Amino acid sequence: MTLDPLPGDLYHMQELLDGREKEILGRVRGFLEAKVAPIANDCWARAEFPFDLIPQYGELGIAGLAYDECPGDRPSSLLTGFLAMDMARVDPSMATFFGVHAGLAMGSIGRCGSPEQRERWLPAMGRMEKIGAFALTEPDGGSDVALGLRTTARRDGDHWVLNGAKRWIGNATFADHTVVWARDEADDQVKGFVVAKGTPGFSATRIENKIALRTVQNADIVLEDCRVPESDRLAGANGFRDTAAILRQTRSGVAWQAVGVMLAAYEIARDYAVGREQFGRPIAKFQLVQDLLVRMLGNATASLGMVVRLAQLQDEGLYRDEHSALAKAYCTSRMREAVGWARELMAGNGIVLDYGIGRFVADAEALYSYEGTREINTLIVGRAATGMGAFV
User: Fold this and answer.
1) The whole model's pTM is what?
2) 88, 171, 336, 354 - which has most CB atoms within 10 Å?
3) Residue span of the structural domain in which 145 resides
4) Is residue 391 part of a domain?
5) What is the pLDDT of residue 147?
C-alpha cells in the first residue's frame, strides 16, 4: 500500500513501515481526518468528550494490537509510534485519551496482570467496550511519586482497603476500570489495583477550567475505605519498579505525540503562509517566514528520526530508561519551540481557535509536562551518561 506523503515527513520515514502496517496506518489516518478533525476544535472549546466516537475507535482494532489476549498480529513499535503520532497530529486530546486507555491502563494489566486477569480484562478493553484509566499522580505529589506515594492499601481478609487521593487522572470520570497505585501498609511496597466503576468509596470529579487538552476528561479521585477484592490486585505489581516499567514504555509514546504536534504546527503554518497575502504577495515568499517554516521542519525531522530509532531499539530488545527519557525531554522541548514559531508566523490569527494552531499551542504545554518533566527526564539521562545520580 502507498500512503499519501505527509508534508512534514521530509525524509519519508513512514516508508519504513511494511505493507500491512501502512494499511493499518492509512485506515486510522482516514478515520482521524474524517471523524476527529472536523469536531476537534468544537470539543476542545466546550471541554466535552465525543463519547459517540469510542465504538468507532474500537472498530479500528488497534487498542489491543500489543496484547496476546486480543486478536491480530503483534505490531512493531514503529507502527505503534506512527499511530500515536498521527492521532496527535489531528488532536492531542484524543491521542491522550487513547494513550491512557491502550498504553497506561491496558499496559499495566498486560505487564503486571496474571494470565487470568489479562484474559478477564484485556479482550473487552481491546475492543474498547470497556475503557481504562491509570491513577498514579496525587494532589500533593508529582515527580517524587516513587518515594512520596501517599495513597495506602491495607489487606483485610480477601479484600484490600484503599485510602487516598489522585489527581489529573485522564478518562477517570467515565472509565470502567481504573488502575490505582497504592503503597501497601504492611511492606511499604507500591502495588496496583483494578478498581471497577461504581465501587463504593471511589469517586471521580472532573477537573474544570483547564487551558490544555480540554477534551480529555481529567479527574480528581478520592478513595475512602474503598474495598477491592484480592482477585483485582495486579498479581505482578510488587514494587514501584513495576510501575516504572510501564511508564518507560508509554513515555516513548509521548515523544511520538510531540512529533505529531510538530507536524500539525508545520502543516498549519505552511498552508497559512502560502495562502496569506501581504504587500501583494503570499507571505511564504518572505525570507523570514521561510526561516520559521524551516526551523519547524528541522525540529520535526530531527525528532522523528530520534523516535524512529527509539522504536527500533524497542523491537531489538536494547531499550533502556535513558532512551525514552531523552526522547521525551528532547521532542517535547522542540515541540514547544515549533508551535511557538507557528503562532508567531500567523500573528494575531494564531490565537484564534478557528485558525487551528491555538489548540496545539495550548495542548503542547500538557505534553511537555506529563509522563515526567523535562528536568526529571534530564536527570535520568544524566545518570546514565555519568554513572552518578543527581536526584535530590
Assistant:
1) 0.95
2) 88
3) 132-239
4) no
5) 67
My answer on whether 192 and 65 are in the same domain is no
Q: By the 8 A CB rule, do 274 and 350 touch?
A: no
Do 100 and 140 belong to one domain?
A: no
- Decide if 371 contacts 328 (C-beta within 8 A): yes
389 HSE (CA, 13 A, CB side): 3
Q: Under 8 Å CB-to-CB from 41, ≥6 apart: which residues?
A: 353, 354, 356, 359
State the amino acid at position 289 in one-letter form: V
> Rounded to an integer, what distance in angstroms lies between the CA atom of residue 96 and that of residue 51?
14
Per-residue pLDDT reduced to its tens digit, 151-162: 999 999 999 999
CB-based contacts of 255, cutoff 8 Å, min separation 6: 303, 306, 307, 310, 324, 327, 328, 330, 331, 332
The rounded distance, in Å, linking the Cα atoms of 124 and 134 is 17
Other residues' Cβ atoms within 10 Å of the Cβ of residue 348:
8
φ/ψ (deg, to 5) at 129: -80, -25
**What are 228-245's pLDDT values in tens digits?**
999 999 999 999 888 888
What's the number of domains the chain is made of? 3
* 3-state secondary structure (DSSP) of residue 136: coil
